[in-house]
Amino acid sequence: MRAAAGGLALSDTSITIPKKFGQPGAPLPTPNSFNVQGVDTSHLSLGPLSAGTITSGRSLTSSDAHADVAVVDSGYAKSSKLKVGSTVKVVGHSFKVVGIVAQPQAGSPPQVFIPLARAQALGKAAGKSLKNEVNTIYVKASSAADIPAVQNEIKKLLPSGTVTTASSLASQVTGSLSSTAKLANDLGRWLSILALIAAFAVASLLTMAAVTRRVREFGTLKALGWRSRRIIAQVMGESLVIGIVGGVAGVALGFAGAAIITAVAPQLSATVASATGQQVVSAGGGAARGFSPTVPHTVAVPMSATVTAAAVVAAVVLAVIGGLLAGSFASWRIARLRPADALARVA
After folding, report:
1. Measured in Å, how far apart are the chain's first and last C-alpha atoms?
2. Does residue 341 have a pLDDT over 70?
3. Single pTM value for the model
């Protein structure tokens, strides 16, 4: 294990009672709740702030371990009209906002980050001591190969805890999206087959139509002594060249389309939940304690279109096959042509 850091997730909940509460037409009480995350300031690169980006002010530092300072989520700061230098109250205690952080999208990201020691001290205001308590432990292994050993050791030390790794999050995302991915793959496969059949049919019809327009030309060549196999070879050669040119053009359009899709595709995310314990501290003078079995984690799901070498080869091969197939039908039409029939059509 390379490093470890503790964290304490809290929730500040208050309810505003209107003056005319209980009277007809009076507004209902307004609850106000936000999540607070205690951050180990001696391991900022490992804690919950490591995934965010400071957009204004500064982040917490090791010198802030016992200071009443806070870093606020950018969305919460905007909705609450907070900025660097403002004051945010947590369980009645005032914390000065020293920074605004933009976090990856998640189901319920913390709105306020304060030093871990100050978060533990807030329990006194609610009548419960949280000294030296944490409900989340962040661990960094020395290498990826050590992750299974570290995971097993943590399970031995904390048998009632839940250990979440990057691979387990990935497996949850894979499991939740597997049915969707299978449906999309099956649908895409059948659509590709139908589009391929339609393309072959259109190519064959167009080639036969072109041969029909050139019936006098081929009839004249036969009358001059060209054998049927020579004319068939010419038609097949023309179809082969058209297939190769179409395949190259299709590959170029495929690369252009993939680049456009990658550029304009929206950023998606998948939220999965991992079990964890959470202490809850409520404002209002009374002690409150709860247990939240899950904490949301968000994993980015990029949307991009890729063109692989196998796809390029398959496209060219199918284009050539389509050209040869179309040429075969046209050749069959030419093979049945008699010079007398062609000459009879000469105006």
Report:
1. 92
2. no
3. 0.47
